[in-house]
């Protein structure tokens, strides 16, 4: 793959840095039984109550629907892998506790940490754009099998502070927040539709097609594609 000159490397998480199973099995199995108890235990937390209200609205529930009805909607979204913002917010709050307590540890693909450290040490600025909430992202990088990696990332974006991952305006918002020209940002993701949106916003893109992952055999169209971050050559502008 030809070397890419960039200021920023923006990274997706699920399927790119971690196996999809790290999210859909480890993290979802941890969050699923804790959603109801969390909601019940935090009746005065504004972040929690706002997420519950938004879940009621998006889920077509009455404004006073009880916790069981709200949790049923949240579990339905998890089963569909619908990454609705209020679900990701509540998951993120629960995962923060899980990582802080040591019950959760993020396992990254073996090629990830060496690449992130090399790019960081070469002067490239690293950021994350994930459907996972920013608090959930930071928590997940605070406790990994490679230690605390939070210091490698300068910025974090999710569907609340940037927008939907498959829509071009989200990438224009991120470029503005980074203060960078679009073509000085390279986005690495396992999802072709996300890469398409980033490319339409003028970003450089690299498809990460890992064998055995959901998009491992996908058609990445015009995007340069790798199976490992070790194949990605990025040089600081
Ligand atoms: C580490 S935060 C949890 C990630 C998450 O909940 C998720 O849905 C990942 O989606 P992505 O956009 O990173 O593929
Ligand atoms: Mg992904």
From TrEMBL:
Its EC number is 3.1.3.77. One of its GO terms (molecular function) is acireductone synthase activity. Keywords: Amino-acid biosynthesis, Hydrolase, Magnesium, Metal-binding, Methionine biosynthesis. InterPro entries: Enolase-ppase_E1, HAD-like_sf, HAD-SF_hydro_IA, HAD_sf. The keyword rRNA processing does not apply. Its cofactor is Mg(2+). Pathway: Amino-acid biosynthesis; L-methionine biosynthesis via salvage pathway; L-methionine from S-methyl-5-thio-alpha-D-ribose 1-phosphate: step 4/6; Amino-acid biosynthesis; L-methionine biosynthesis via salvage pathway; L-methionine from S-methyl-5-thio-alpha-D-ribose 1-phosphate: step 3/6. GO terms for biological process: L-methionine salvage from methylthioadenosine. SUPFAM superfamilies: HAD-like. It comes from the Bacteria. Binds 1 Mg(2+) ion per subunit. The keyword Mitochondrion does not apply. It catalyses: 5-methylsulfanyl-2,3-dioxopentyl phosphate + H2O = 1,2-dihydroxy-5-(methylsulfanyl)pent-1-en-3-one + phosphate. Belongs to the HAD-like hydrolase superfamily. MasA/MtnC family. NCBIfam families: enolase-ppase, HAD-SF-IA-v3. Bifunctional enzyme that catalyzes the enolization of 2,3-diketo-5-methylthiopentyl-1-phosphate (DK-MTP-1-P) into the intermediate 2-hydroxy-3-keto-5-methylthiopentenyl-1-phosphate (HK-MTPenyl-1-P), which is then dephosphorylated to form the acireductone 1,2-dihydroxy-3-keto-5-methylthiopentene (DHK-MTPene). Monomer. This is Enolase-phosphatase E1. It comes from Actinophytocola xanthii. The lineage of its organism: Bacteria, Bacillati, Actinomycetota, Actinomycetes, Pseudonocardiales.
């Amino acid at each position: 793959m030809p070397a890419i000159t960039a200021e920023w490397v923006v990274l997706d998480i699920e399927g790119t840095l971690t196996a999809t199973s790290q999210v859909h099995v480890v993290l979802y199995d941890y969050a699923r039984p804790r959603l109801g108890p969390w909601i019940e235990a935090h009746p005065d937390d504004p972040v929690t109550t706002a997420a519950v209200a938004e879940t009621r609205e998006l889920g077509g529930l009455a404004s006073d629907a009880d916790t069981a009805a709200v949790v049923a909607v949240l579990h339905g979204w998890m089963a569909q892998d619908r990454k609705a913002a209020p679900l990701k917010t509540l998951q993120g709050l629960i995962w923060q506790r899980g990582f802080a307590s040591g019950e959760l540890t993020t396992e990254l693909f073996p090629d990830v940490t060496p690449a992130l450290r090399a790019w960081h040490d070469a002067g490239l600025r690293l950021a994350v754009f994930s459907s996972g909430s920013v608090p959930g992202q930071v928590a997940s990088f605070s406790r990994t099998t490679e230690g605390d990696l939070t210091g490698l990332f300068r910025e974090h974006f999710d569907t609340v502070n940037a927008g939907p991952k498959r829509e071009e305006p989200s990438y224009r918002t991120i470029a503005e927040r980074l203060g960078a020209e679009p073509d000085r940002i390279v986005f690495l993701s396992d999802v072709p539709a996300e890469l398409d949106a980033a490319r339409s916003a003028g970003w450089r893109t690299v498809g990460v097609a890992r064998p055995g992952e959901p998009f491992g055999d996908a058609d990445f169209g015009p995007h340069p594609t790798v199976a490992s971050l070790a194949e990605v050559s990025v040089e600081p502008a």
